[in-house]
Amino acid sequence: MNSFASRGDVLNIFIDNKNGAPIYDQIYNQIKSSIINGELKENDPLPSIRNLAKDLRISVITTKRAYDELEREGFIYTQPAKGCFVAPKNTELLREENLKKIEELLTEVRQRAASCSLSTEDIIDMYKYLSEN
Amino acid sequence: MNALNINNLTKKYKGFTLDNISFSLPQGCILGLIGENGAGKSTTIRSILGSIKYDGSIEVLGQPVSAKLKNRIGVVLDEVGFPDMLNANDINKIMKNMFSNWDEKLYNEYLDKFDLPKNKAFSDFSKGMKMKLGIAVALSHHAELLILDEPTSGLDPLVRDEIIDILNDFTREENHSILISSHIVSDLEKLCDYIAFMHKGKLMLCEEKDNLLEQYVFINTTEEQLAELDENAVKGKRSNKWSTEAIVDKNMIPQSFTTKPVSIEDLFVFMAKEEN
Amino acid sequence: MMKGLITKEFLVLIKNNKMQLFCILLMAVFGVVMKSAVYIMFIPLLFPMLVNQVLTVDETSRWDKYSACFPVNKKDIVSSKYIVALMASLLSVVLSLAAFIAINIVNKDKTIGMNDIVGYLTAAASASIILPSIMYPFDFKFGTAKGRLVYFTATGVAIAGLTALFMKKDMTPYLSRITQPAFIAAIIAAALIIFIVSWFVSAKIYEAREI
After folding, report:
1. Torsion of CA C152, C158, C162, C165, to 10 degrees
2. C63 three-state secondary structure
3. C80 sits in which H/E element
4. What is the ipTM, given to two decimal places?
5. Taking CB atoms and an 8 Å cutoff, what residues of chain B touch A18?
6. From chain C, which residues contact B within 8 Å (Cβ)?
7. What pTM did the predictor assign?
8. Which of chain B's residues have a Cβ under 8 Å away from the Cβ of A65?
9. How confident is the model at residue A1 (pLDDT cuts 50, 70, 90)?
């Protein structure tokens, strides 16, 4: 079952109840992506924790957890009595995000390489070839 | 402040005992009380309302329950007890003089929203309509805590969904909380922040719903493999001729197992069977 | 608040008993037409029955259980019923008085004496206060079906007892005393005391019940 909330035309959130990751994780990731790829701009307001929960028909504890995580990671900030807003783009943060993703992907490359017996040199050759073409 | 604090609630009847129930409902949250018929849900709610005497302590909105406090509590019981010959307008006249914060305008809005006739006698209402009237009354005096005892039993899925929506909206306000009991678990599963399981007068658990869904998983295995696991990890099992299905604590089993998510209903049924 | 309970009592009383209220009115009219006090004296005996029926409605509609949802306690519930019973009793006295006055207006030559009227009204007032006082504790303890039984028994015993008393002794010296104001006050005061004691007893009974 998919449910979604949309704030204006910008933020869309799709929750997969059945087989996806924990719901707070899905929300966290989707808001984070929207922030990173610029759909959500600096200082844009986010829906309140309660309203988001009620719109998505999920627990406030879940949305709170997602927002807490986003705040902890520096993607959003809270203004008391006003709500949550997108934090100014932190290039350092973005870089770190990208590094993390690259590491993830490289780990996967290594695993797959191992399963078809490719050596490190083979992989580096492959990368060079792709970079040139 | 907690909307509701129940400590060591005990009530003895002939043939049934409500045994040392303790749980809390944080303000702004929805707690679903799940249990089979006769598990003790209604007894718990009747204790909260002061309809019966009990041992233990109960606090609502930070105070012991009194008649005056009920102005801030909206209650819907499984049977809406309005006299047959009265209609919705009569109920308004009564409630105007009953509740200190009765909001006639809001009440009429709910009647329109629920499509309830204003001049029809209560005896002509269907079960769904009666329940909706009860909910309209509970929502029309600016209550902070809603207590609902089996509000959806006997109602068709369409009406139940409507009611879940209304309850969902009620908690958009930060200081609004809901305690709802039901044996229709699927309704509660959508709505609740906290889940409490009651079975044969005992409280089996009371936890954040999301934690439950994350912590417990289904595994498909054999009796032998199951026996090798930590016995505290296994919350319940079901065996057939060819395999055994079990609900386990994800953190207490080896990573090698393939897991499937559980629903709250599954969790309750398996745990209750294990208790028996 | 108790006011809500009283509102409910009256709404149910009126809506549930349209037929019975009509009959009572008929009784009054009949009494005027027949120039007979007997019919009029039924009025204060019938009102408590109606009020008792509201309690029955409470039970069948499960209002008694549903009252747990409202900001009233068991004492309020009992009090609302006693207050309504008192108001009904007052109403029955007023109605009886009106009927007597009507008889006297209609019937210029054979009017009922003021003394007699006062006597009748005193009896009416006391009966309409004492009868619910006896009935209610039983209603609250055992439910209205049994309460009604008690009511009929009590009324029967009272009527039988008074009839026997009248037949045995010459009551005229006592009856003439009834018109003395002090005596009237004493009878009504006694009725009210019984009423108030019954109120307390019912409250205690109902508080101990688990609905």
Report:
1. 120
2. helix
3. helix C74-106
4. 0.86
5. 261
6. 1, 3-8, 11-12, 15-16, 57-58, 60-73, 76, 210-211
7. 0.84
8. 210
9. very low
